[in-house]
């Protein structure tokens, strides 16, 4: 078993994509999928608790971390699903165990609905409620116009440069104020690139920020979730922007589920309340 992960690459959709592999190949596959504008090494503290019992892999989604950017792509759920499917086919040994956060949670939930016999158990962190920006019922002509203008705007933008590591860490803290200093530093160092002038930029492609003009269809998502056969453990941070899924009713589409509401935790609750997350996840997976 590898104490530190091995950096590896694979191809999907003609893109060279990256993943981390912690070894222990004789054990069941446990795959962690990060959220938007994040990276695979965001899971490092979590992975340590499961290394003895699983073969752990964590991909950098297209446009994130050390994976290739995808010029001309929409960075849609369908494209991310395609990439995850390719990686899991490489890993083999179905059924697999899946853990995802935010965008990553949406991806693994849909994968389990599309391939219900390939997933043994699933953990979804903050993945039931899509961001409010992608659900309002704007007329289709407005959605398309907004998407076109957003794309044109991104073509003119350059990534924001941070003058030093401290400034980048402060930005990370602003995004998630519950983060410890060590975790904020860890996420920043592994999620940024140094420029020749000593400034830093984030690794992810700015275009991953844009939402598809073909809005997230919650009705279709619920139909996909209804096909999930495996047990599902869901987490929600009580200080997050996400809605109570029992009020919206969406969670009821997942037949075999349990929801853990975590106090004093925001959208990144696995960082904000790591001990709670590891304890609940361990009891569920093992």
Going by CATH, the architecture would be 3-Layer(aba) Sandwich
- What's the total number of strands? 10
- Which segments are poorly predicted (pLDDT under 50) over 5 or more consecutive residues? none
Distance between the termini: 18 Å
β-strand amount: 15-25%
User: Numbering strands along the chain, what is their spatial order in the largest sheet?
Assistant: 1-2-4-3-5-6-9-10
Ordered list of secondary-structure elements with their pairings:
Layout: E1 6-12, E2 15-21, E3 29-33, H1 44-47, E4 55-60, H2 77-91, E5 96-101, H3 103-114, E6 119-125, H4 140-156, H5 165-175, H6 181-190, E7 192-194, E8 200-202, H7 218-225, E9 232-237, H8 245-248, E10 257-262, H9 269-272, H10 274-285
Parallel strand pairs: 3-4, 3-5, 5-6, 6-9, 9-10
Antiparallel strand pairs: 1-2, 2-4, 7-8
Describe this structure in words.
It is a single chain. The protein has a single domain (6-129, 137-157, 206-285), classed as Alpha/Beta hydrolase fold, catalytic domain (Rossmann fold, 3-Layer(aba) Sandwich). The protein is globular. The chain has helices at residues 44-47, 77-91, 103-114, 140-156, 165-175, 181-190, 218-225, 245-248, 269-272, 274-285, and strands at 6-12, 15-21, 29-33, 55-60, 96-101, 119-125, 192-194, 200-202, 232-237, 257-262. The protein is of the alpha/beta class. Strand 1 and strand 2 (15-21) form a beta hairpin. Helix 2 (77-91) crosses helix 3 and helix 3 (103-114) packs across helix 7. The protein has 10 helices and 10 strands. Strands 1-2-4-3-5-6-9-10 form an 8-stranded mixed β-sheet, sandwiched between helices. Strands 7-8 form a two-stranded antiparallel ribbon. Helices cover 34% and strands 20% of the residues.
């Amino acid at each position: 078993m590898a104490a530190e992960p091995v950096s590896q690459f694979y191809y999907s959709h003609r893109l060279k994509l990256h993943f981390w592999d912690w070894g222990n190949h004789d054990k069941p596959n446990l795959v962690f999928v990060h959220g938007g504008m994040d990276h695979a090494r965001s899971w490092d503290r979590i992975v340590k608790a499961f290394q003895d019992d699983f073969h752990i892999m964590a991909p950098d989604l297209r446009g994130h971390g050390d994976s290739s950017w995808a010029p001309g792509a929409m960075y849609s759920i369908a494209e991310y699903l395609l990439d995850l499917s390719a990686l899991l086919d490489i890993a083999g040994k179905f059924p697999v165990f899946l853990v995802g956060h935010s965008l990553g949670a949406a991806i693994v939930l849909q994968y389990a609905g599309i391939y219900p016999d390939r997933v043994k158990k699933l953990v979804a962190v903050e993945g039931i409620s899509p961001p409010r920006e992608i659900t309002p019922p704007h007329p289709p002509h407005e959605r398309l116009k907004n998407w076109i203008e957003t794309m044109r705007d991104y073509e003119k933008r350059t990534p924001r440069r941070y003058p030093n590591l401290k400034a980048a860490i402060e930005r990370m803290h602003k995004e998630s104020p519950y983060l410890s200093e060590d975790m904020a530093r860890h996420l920043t160092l592994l999620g940024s690139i140094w420029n020749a002038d000593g400034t830093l930029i984030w690794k992810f492609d700015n275009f991953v920020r844009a939402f598809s003009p073909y809005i997230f269809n919650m009705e279709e998502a619920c139909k996909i979730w209804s096909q999930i056969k495996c047990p599902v453990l869901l987490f929600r941070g009580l200080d997050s922007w996400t809605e109570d899924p029992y009020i919206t009713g969406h969670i009821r589409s997942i037949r075999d589920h349990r929801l853990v509401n975590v106090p004093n935790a925001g959208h990144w609750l696995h960082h904000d309340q790591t001990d709670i997350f590891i304890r609940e996840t361990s009891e569920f997976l093992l």
